[in-house]
Design brief:
alpha+beta; Peptide Deformylase; 2 domains; five-stranded antiparallel sheet; globular; disordered C terminus
Length: 187
C-alpha cells in the first residue's frame, strides 16, 4: 500500500473542484486505490477521504470512523436527507481551518462496496452523516467552505484552540473560586 499525498487548496484546485468520473468497472486498480486511500486517510488523521483528495478524479470515497472498520463507497450518492444542524467542520484539503456550516440530521446514501455489491448507508445526527455528505461533496467538486454562510464562519485552528484554552482557564478559575468560597463558608 502507498500513502498518497493529500491535495490542498488553492494549489490543487483543478482536481478538487472537478466533478469526478464514475467508476465503470471495479478491478484491481480500484481495489488498490481503496487500500491506498484508507492508508492515506489514517496517515493524515482523517475520518474520510475522497479520491480527488489524493489526485484521482474518480467517484470513490472511504470512511473510517474511530473504533469502526473503514469502508469504501464507489459511485456514492445521497438519496435522502432530512433536517438541518449547524456543525463545525474541517477538511484535510483545507488544513488549519474549521468552518461552521449546515449539514443534514439524517442521511441515506447508496453506492457499491469494494466487491461491487450495492449497499445503503443510513446515518442520523452523527459523524457518519457528516462524513457521508462531506465526502460525497468532494466527488462533486464541492468543498465544505462552499457551504459557509459568511467568511466570519471560517476559523483558523490556532484561534479556536486559543479560545478553548481561555474558556478552560475561565472554567478552572470559576471552580477554584467556587471551592474557595465554599471553604470560607465552612470555616
Amino acid at each position: 500500500m502507498t500513502i498518497l499525498p493529500v491535495r490542498v487548496l488553492p494549489a490543487d484546485a483543478t482536481v478538487l473542484r472537478r466533478k469526478a468520473n464514475r467508476v465503470s468497472r471495479i478491478d484491481r486498480s480500484i481495489q488498490m486505490l481503496i487500500d491506498d486511500m484508507i492508508e492515506s486517510m489514517y496517515e493524515a488523521e482523517g475520518v474520510g477521504i475522497a479520491a480527488p483528495q489524493v489526485g484521482v478524479s474518480l467517484r470513490v470515497i472511504v470512511i473510517g470512523l474511530p473504533e469502526e472498520e473503514p469502508f469504501a463507497l464507489i459511485n456514492p450518492e445521497i438519496i435522502k436527507q432530512f433536517g438541518e444542524r449547524r456543525i463545525l467542520e474541517g477538511c484535510l484539503s483545507v488544513p488549519g481551518f474549521r468552518g461552521e456550516i449546515q449539514r443534514s440530521v439524517k442521511v441515506l446514501a447508496k453506492g457499491l462496496d469494494r466487491e461491487g455489491k450495492e449497499i445503503r448507508v443510513k446515518a442520523e445526527d452523527d459523524l457518519l452523516a457528516q462524513a457521508l455528505e462531506h465526502e460525497i461533496d468532494h466527488i462533486n467538486g464541492t468543498i465544505y467552505i462552499d457551504h459557509l454562510e459568511s467568511k466570519d464562519d471560517l476559523y483558523a485552528l490556532e484561534d479556536l484552540e486559543r479560545a478553548e484554552a481561555e474558556a478552560d482557564r475561565e472554567d478552572a478559575g470559576d471552580e477554584v473560586g467556587g471551592a474557595a468560597a465554599a471553604q470560607e463558608s465552612v470555616d
